[in-house]
Task: inverse folding
């Protein structure tokens, strides 16, 4: 009987110790300090998501000078990817005398471009007359509006070079000065010297 009472007492002591340790451990884990420490550890381990900055978009403009047979000639600010047709619309369209067959409405505008809209019949007036005794400015070939047939009338310009001039004009914009012709394959300094007195570059 004594042995049984002794074992029960030992069991009660062990149980009390276990309950005490369990209570203490729960109190430590639930304390505000431990919670804050755990929270700070979690915050340090979680990195904020990277936010990609959207690339800045820049609107490039092209300032062009519209002359000739348009209702409102003048200088217009256009978008860089606009076409000649957009410029004509800004200038309130063609006049009744405009020769629209000589205008490439699909050409992309470029900054500082001069857009010259010829009048009907102006093509014949500007054709070089070989029989004429003088080469005035009125009968020079306008390099920015001349057709392939007109260009072949220039000295040293055959059909291939005429097409190259037109292709360069369509792809890179109107010629601003006579020296721009040097960018075309087959036209060198000597050819340019011969051409200068026969052409007009606005």
Result:
């Amino acid at each position: 009987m004594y042995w049984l009472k002794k074992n029960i007492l030992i069991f009660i002591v062990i149980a009390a110790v276990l309950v005490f340790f369990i209570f203490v451990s729960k109190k430590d884990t639930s304390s505000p300090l431990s919670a804050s420490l755990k929270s700070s550890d979690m915050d340090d381990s979680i990195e904020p998501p990277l936010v990609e900055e959207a690339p800045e978009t820049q609107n490039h403009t092209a300032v062009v000078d519209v002359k000739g047979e348009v209702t409102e000639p003048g200088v217009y600010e256009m978008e860089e990817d606009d076409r000649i047709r957009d410029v004509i619309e800004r200038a309130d369209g063609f006049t009744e005398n405009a020769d629209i067959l000589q205008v490439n409405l699909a050409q992309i505008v470029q900054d500082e471009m001069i857009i010259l809209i010829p009048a009907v019949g102006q093509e014949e007036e500007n054709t070089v007359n070989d029989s004429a005794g003088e080469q005035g400015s009125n009968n020079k070939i306008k390099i920015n509006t001349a057709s392939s047939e007109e260009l072949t009338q220039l000295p040293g310009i055959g059909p291939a070079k005429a097409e190259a001039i037109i292709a360069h004009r369509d792809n890179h914009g109107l010629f601003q000065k006579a020296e721009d012709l040097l960018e075309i394959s087959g036209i060198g300094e000597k050819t340019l010297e011969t051409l200068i007195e026969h052409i007009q570059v606005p």
